[in-house]
Amino acid sequence: MKSKLIALSLFTMAIASCNTEDKKIETVLEVTSFNLKTTASELEFNTLDAEIEETFTSKQPGYIRRQSGVDEQGKYVVLVYWKSLADAKASMDKFMNDKSVAGYASMIEGSTMKMSRFTIKDKFKATNSTFTEVMTFNTKEGTDIKAFNKVNKSVGPKFTEKQKGFLQRITGSNDSGEQVAVVYWDTKANSDAVINDFMNAPVAKEFMGMMDQSTIDMMRFQSLASLKNVTLSNKDKVVALLNSFNTGDQTPISYINPNKYIQHNLGVADGLQGFGELMQHAPEGGFKANVVRAFQDGDYVFAQTEYDFFGPKAAFDIFRFEDGLIVEHWDNLLEVQKPNPSGHTQFDGATALTDLDKTEANKAVVRGFIEDVLLNHQMDKVASYINPKEYVQHNPAVADGLEGFGAAMKYFAENGLVMEYDNLHMVLGQGNFVLSVSEGKFGKGDHTAYYDLFRLENGLIVEHWDVIATIPAKSDWKNTNGKF
């Protein structure tokens, strides 16, 4: 009798175990991706991100776990596991209105933010992961979801689970039909090592073949917690220096080399002494600076800034670094103007930084445009460089599109005015933004500096800002370094 009871008990436990396996507790995975504003400090953001997790997200009802990271293109990804969809929504609603996270949220480029939530049945176990792959996608129209789920489930045992450094694979879907697959690795190196093998594996080909390729969003990121020795970038130093006009903070002055500071603003004396003399002549209340865009290209940082500098000014600044210190500075300033015929100001427009892997290609496009069209007047090549269907213009006097560009050229010709580019001195870029610095003549032939900022998409210029300023007579220079 006793043996029968034991057998019955074991049988009951087995049935219960099977039922538990079949009815795993569903939770919610929230996937959010975004880029930072170009004026944001990655070091500061990473610090705030850890604080947000500790003081805000982890305190919300239904919170399970949070992981954040950044990929090689500068895209941030945040994964948060919640007990329910209601918990996830409640947390986001509170986040959007909580003043304690306002500083963190203000550093995010809103136009790049994307968020999806997925129902999952897998319990997170990959606590030692430092590198994560997240792929979201839709299946092809007409795909048998049961067949897809079977293939999806087989990817782990047939391939991923056999790989060195693999920790866990989590999958899920939502009511919109969007799918997610998250793979956790111990290191990036082990993830990188299997990419080609995965793409050639039969199960991967079957899995990928059921996806709508146009919907795939693949993110591979290093966890912020695993990043070591993150330091203040040169761009961060420039933004801090410009913002010090507003805050009065003296720390950023230490980012300038005290023994070597070559000044190309011809109204300011050379060296730190010249910078100090300029500050002494500031009006009551001091100078003000609103950094709109900032970029880094090797040892150079260039920024577009709205100044209150003896009146409202639109400006571009360029700083060159050596050994982490600023050693040279160029700029071009112009009074702030009214919106142009298309209603654009000298500062508005796109700010999101993308296409970091296309920096050199985009710089080559801008160089070609300046040399072929503006220096050598090969107007038949304009459409090879500027998108004929989308060209947003921020020059105060010129309207959008190639028509606006052509109308401006016609006006100058009919009124005996010139806009001549004689020399291209510098081309700097980061991702989809490129700045060119040129010398020429403008208006009635005045010696002029042209600073042109371009935004590119798919290899063509789609947006343009500029500052065109007269170069003062040499007798008025306060340094001998020249404008360029």
TrEMBL record:
Domain SnoaL-like residue range list: 366-464
Protein name: Predicted SnoaL-like aldol condensation-catalyzing enzyme
Pfam families: SnoaL_2
UniProt cross-references to Gene3D superfamilies, sorted A to Z: 3.10.450.50, 3.30.70.100
Domain of life of the source: Bacteria
InterPro entries: Dimeric_a/b-barrel, NTF2-like_dom_sf, SnoaL-like
